[in-house]
Amino acid sequence: MSGNRGVVYVGPGKVEVQNIPFPELVNPQGRKIGHGVILKVLSTNICGSDQHMVRGRTTAPAGLVLGHEITGEVVEVGADVETMKVGDLVSVPFNVACGRCRTCIEQNTGVCLSVNPSRAGGAYGYVDMGGWIGGQAEYVMVPYADFNLLKFPDRDQALAKIKDLTCLSDILPTGYHGAVMAGVGPGKTVYVAGAGPVGMAAAASARLLGAAVVIVGDMNEARLAHARAVGFETVDLSQDATLGEQIAAILGTPEVDCAVDAVGFEARGHGHSGSQHEAPATVLNSLMEVTKVAGKIGIPGLYVTDDPGAVDEAAKRGSLSVRFGLGWAKAHSFHTGQTPVMRYNHQLMQAILWNRINIADVVNVELISLDDAPKGYAQFDAGVAKKYVIDPHNQLR
């Protein structure tokens, strides 16, 4: 049996690279399965959702192997797998999905009914998402392989585009889903809250969908500078001018056609004083203010049911002071929840392979070693304008 190492959540603010068991074809309940494969991990990305756990803002237990953004090579195939073979290079949707239940059949793979005993929806290396072992490791097991895995058509082409293709497991489909659910289309004006990797992926997706102008808002000047460098308009939410005023300075009107929340529950208030304090409903409320009447708001930013580190007792239970009456009065449409990656990943793979989207440049991918993962977590948490991609076997640099 081969060895294995992975990134393990130790406690608030701390991760370590530890020896972990080599994966087996068993589910989290210990039952042997024939529908899975074992992957040698080619690339695995650090995600903002991982950071929520590492900051201690969820009920994640110590010892959790992290990582839900996985690209790999098949090295072992279960007896029931029919369409995958050893040597295939594949992208793994972060959703664990069975392909058999009603929601999977309806392409709502983010809320599969079969892979998590406690609630709808499963994911690798994530709290309350079914106990599936994470992929920030050298090797990982993927169940329901025939359904879940996206096979790259050409190995050499995939390796040449790996910095882009690694984004297919989560952030690119997530950003795209946010833009689609916000109604982005040709000629639309779009505001994206958050210049982190998901926000930048949403901005790139809006451009791919034909938006006339895409405005990205954040408080982090390094991230805003990067957003401008790759062609987006920006607003600085640490300034005292309101969001509507800053949008009006760009568009001539304080409203946009479409808006995307790529921040989630750890949002901070706007303005010089507000930016120092957490205000988890700020983004949602500001988007309702600047989205036109009868507009749509896509919400791929993460919100949780339990937040031990929240600013008040209500927020600890996921209850936020959202101005729902404003949204009702403006006839807004809201769309929340985990992205059903499989609804989009094949088309987005083709967009990458045919040079229709340069997502690695937009999110500023930087390859790091597995041993440097703790440093990558710390730097990402400090707000660097990068998307850290772990190269567990040092094959890509």
Automatic annotation (TrEMBL):
<dbReference type="InterPro" id="IPR036291">
    <property type="entry name" value="NAD(P)-bd_dom_sf"/>
</dbReference>
<keyword id="KW-0862">Zinc</keyword>
<protein>
    <submittedName>
        <fullName>Formaldehyde dehydrogenase, glutathione-independent</fullName>
        <ecNumber>1.2.1.46</ecNumber>
    </submittedName>
</protein>
<keyword id="KW-0560">Oxidoreductase</keyword>
<dbReference type="GO" id="GO:0018467">
    <property type="term" value="F:formaldehyde dehydrogenase (NAD+) activity"/>
</dbReference>
<feature type="domain" description="Alcohol dehydrogenase-like C-terminal">
    <location>
        <begin position="197"/>
        <end position="264"/>
    </location>
</feature>
<keyword id="KW-0479">Metal-binding</keyword>
<dbReference type="InterPro" id="IPR011032">
    <property type="entry name" value="GroES-like_sf"/>
</dbReference>
<feature type="domain" description="Alcohol dehydrogenase-like N-terminal">
    <location>
        <begin position="36"/>
        <end position="153"/>
    </location>
</feature>
<dbReference type="InterPro" id="IPR013149">
    <property type="entry name" value="ADH-like_C"/>
</dbReference>
<dbReference type="Pfam" id="PF08240">
    <property type="entry name" value="ADH_N"/>
</dbReference>
<comment type="similarity">
    <text>Belongs to the zinc-containing alcohol dehydrogenase family.</text>
</comment>
<dbReference type="InterPro" id="IPR002328">
    <property type="entry name" value="ADH_Zn_CS"/>
</dbReference>
<dbReference type="InterPro" id="IPR013154">
    <property type="entry name" value="ADH-like_N"/>
</dbReference>
<dbReference type="InterPro" id="IPR014184">
    <property type="entry name" value="HCHO_DH_non_GSH"/>
</dbReference>
<keyword id="KW-0520">NAD</keyword>
<dbReference type="Pfam" id="PF00107">
    <property type="entry name" value="ADH_zinc_N"/>
</dbReference>
